[in-house]
Write a structure and sequence with these properties.
By secondary structure, this protein is an alpha/beta fold. It is built from 13 helices and 26 strands. It has three domains: 141 residues, Rossmann fold, CATH 3.40.50; 220 residues, 3-Layer(aba) Sandwich (Rossmann fold), CATH 3.40.50.12780; 93 residues, GMP Synthetase, Chain A, domain 3, CATH 3.30.300. α8 packs across α9. The protein is globular and about 70 Å long.
Length: 501
Amino acid sequence: MNISDLLIKSASRKPKHPAIRFLGRTITYEELNRQSDRLSHGLVRSGLRSGDVCVLMMPNSIEWAIVYYALAKVGAVVLPVNFLYRKGELEHIFKDSGARAFIGHREYLDHPRQVMENLPKMDLRIAQGVTPGQGFVPLEELFIDEGSFDPYPSKDDDTWTIIYTSGTTGRPKGAMLTHYNMASNAMTVANMRSTDPNDVVFGVLPLFHIYGQTSAFNSSIYLGLTIRLWPQFQAEELFSAIEEEESSILIAVPTIFNRLVELADLRPPRRSGLRFCVSGGASLPVEVLRRFQDRFHTTIYEGYGLTECSPVCVENPFGRQTRPGSIGLAIPGFEARIVNDRDEDVSVGAVGELIIRGPGVMKGYLNQPEATAETLRGGWLHTGDLARVDGDGYIYIVDRKKEMIIRGGYNVYPREIEEILYTHPDVVEAAVLGVPDADLGEEVAAAVVLREGACTTPEDLKQFVKERVAPYKYPRKIRLVKELPKSHTGKILKRAIHLED
């Protein structure tokens, strides 16, 4: 299948239904499909061929959606990239991917332009909003009226997208995902949930990220729902939209839920049109989940995924009682196990590595056969996340395998300590990590953001945690900070936190 089939079928079923609302503009399913056809003709005429890798480096917009499906119809390989990346971040991605084409936005061309100066093979350069003579073909000139465009007949194993991982353990690796990986994941996720034809899905996640692409974008297009899209997340705007829309769905990361609930504490919402929410991308603190559900009178279904899985593979089952703190059960078509270092299943309640098998699992890492073999050994995707399972099969993430702290021979899981810190009335955000210690090997440390005007001290927080955990677990070092460094999706970047003396 070709992932553009999701759009083509919805355009046939619901041609006049709004597909995307964006900054006062609305495009219907019929028009979105027609514009992607027009652009497909123009891209082919410009020399783009099936199999060519094309960087897509634009902020969320209607044009992003048109380009995305046009590239699919042509049979190209899309490489979505954060439009805020700088030269140093882009060099590896552009070179490693072997990208032949580039489609960007006029406001974010300085850094990719510098990289492309040394990449003569990247000769098809297109940008939205430019004028001729600036080194880029204006995107607007590539829309050609030649009737419908027959999508490239993609095979199950044809790569549709290369998504570069965040590189927490080294240089980013390009996960190769097929049309089948991505389309099947979007359809599975969509079919798991109960939707109404008039639902509005809030598009606040960046579309260059796999989570936004699958859970908010492709799944909504497949269902024929309306996506209310923003260039970036603004807490106040989303808060107002929740009050305005009659029936809405929010798919977000924990940082977004936390920001919204902080606003709700200051001004309770007039009403909430949220039918349900889905949280992913990072662990959602239980205290934030409870507060959000109480303020907005809705249910958050926490799930789990990773780039290499397209990304969703585990989620709390829709319509059933959720289990706070749990990421749920393997979604239809997927299997999940918790194993030891020999890939043997551990007992119920024991901590081990979460491994996954299912239709969303990637082909492999581009140009990295050894890393591919290690990650996919035995036919299972090894996630690197530590988890446990209860007697009903519900999975609980304990922490990243590489983030576990070993203090004097004792294992300390940062998430457990973070959950406790979030229950303190003055704490807005917290990140727990290990720092080197000459005597114990590692010591437990924390960076904490307090509410404005709070007078709580690090010693107060140490005592608060000390009263609630075994003596070896509480953080001996706590630093109060104004904010925590975050990724483009709002995920806290622990590797950028420095707490050593």
